[in-house]
Amino acid sequence: MVTAAARILAPTPAENSGEVEGIRLEVGDVSHAFAFEGKPLPVLNHVSFSAAPGEFVALLGPSGCGKSTLLRLVAGLDHPNTGRVTADGADIGTPDPSRILVFQDPTLYPWRTVEANVSLGLEARGILKAERHRVAQALALVGLSGFESAYPRQLSGGMAQRVALARALVNEPRLLLLDEPLGKLDSLTRITMQGELLKLWQRARFTALLVTHDVEEALFLAERVIVFSDRPARIAADVKVDVPYPRHRGDPRLAELRHHLLHLLGLDETW
Ligand SMILES: Nc1ncnc2c1ncn2[C@@H]1O[C@H](COP(=O)(O)OP(=O)(O)O)[C@@H](O)[C@H]1O
Ligand SMILES: [Mg+2]
């Protein structure tokens, strides 16, 4: 077990590979509601699951069912009405750089260069001077070496999302929370980035929680797919993707699992 202090002092994601240990995540009987027009709007309904250290879990469910809400609870940006969310057994109370959330929209600061955008987390923690080398390493990991001085307006959508990933990786997260991170990309860029995301995970070994509404993306990337019902989300199924990496998109077992997942989502007639 690498302690937090050791992790901050530890050299780099690349040199560290295999050393940074993913978080063990437990979501225990979590229910959550928002107030909407004076009435409670139930969003999560007795949701329980866990993710082992270093596991890649996809969360799949209909639009508006509560997936982003769940990620916000795990990130510590919100607190569940009932139930517990723990990281390595400790309650998640506040956001922490060991748990990083990446959104669909890369949300880069337009007036900052790529390098300055990626530096943000280290700057905020007051460790940029000592840890500046991590910025170059994170940019190398996402294939953006040479673009340090570019501005966001000079980047394609895929490159901007790579910057957002580098900005997360620079913190050496132990839990990476991905909220439809590839959702706005064109399909070719999306397929390329899925492969890159997989390599990043295999290299850095963080625990990954990926929200997606794309069944194929979930099956290409994740070791397990948790399927949610319509809002209020409850777990409809927890499906192991028993296909070793590297996966081939045309694998017949993946096609079988795709059919199964579409059925669980109530969409099998379209298959
Ligand atoms: N802060 C909020 N206040 C009130 N309602 C919210 C808030 N955040 C989300 N909701 C509602 O909760 C439901 C689930 O939202 P969300 O978690 O974003 O769904 P998903 O990510 O699965 O599409 C939606 O009906 C949404 O309108
Ligand atoms: Mg969402």
Automatic annotation (TrEMBL):
<dbReference type="InterPro" id="IPR003439">
    <property type="entry name" value="ABC_transporter-like_ATP-bd"/>
</dbReference>
<keyword id="KW-0547">Nucleotide-binding</keyword>
<protein>
    <submittedName>
        <fullName>ABC transporter ATP-binding protein</fullName>
    </submittedName>
</protein>
<keyword id="KW-1003">Cell membrane</keyword>
<comment type="similarity">
    <text>Belongs to the ABC transporter superfamily.</text>
</comment>
<keyword id="KW-0813">Transport</keyword>
<dbReference type="InterPro" id="IPR027417">
    <property type="entry name" value="P-loop_NTPase"/>
</dbReference>
<keyword id="KW-1278">Translocase</keyword>
<feature type="domain" description="ABC transporter">
    <location>
        <begin position="25"/>
        <end position="255"/>
    </location>
</feature>
<dbReference type="Pfam" id="PF00005">
    <property type="entry name" value="ABC_tran"/>
</dbReference>
<keyword id="KW-0472">Membrane</keyword>
<dbReference type="GO" id="GO:0016887">
    <property type="term" value="F:ATP hydrolysis activity"/>
</dbReference>
<dbReference type="InterPro" id="IPR050166">
    <property type="entry name" value="ABC_transporter_ATP-bind"/>
</dbReference>
<dbReference type="InterPro" id="IPR017871">
    <property type="entry name" value="ABC_transporter-like_CS"/>
</dbReference>
<dbReference type="GO" id="GO:0005524">
    <property type="term" value="F:ATP binding"/>
</dbReference>
<keyword id="KW-0067">ATP-binding</keyword>
<dbReference type="InterPro" id="IPR003593">
    <property type="entry name" value="AAA+_ATPase"/>
</dbReference>
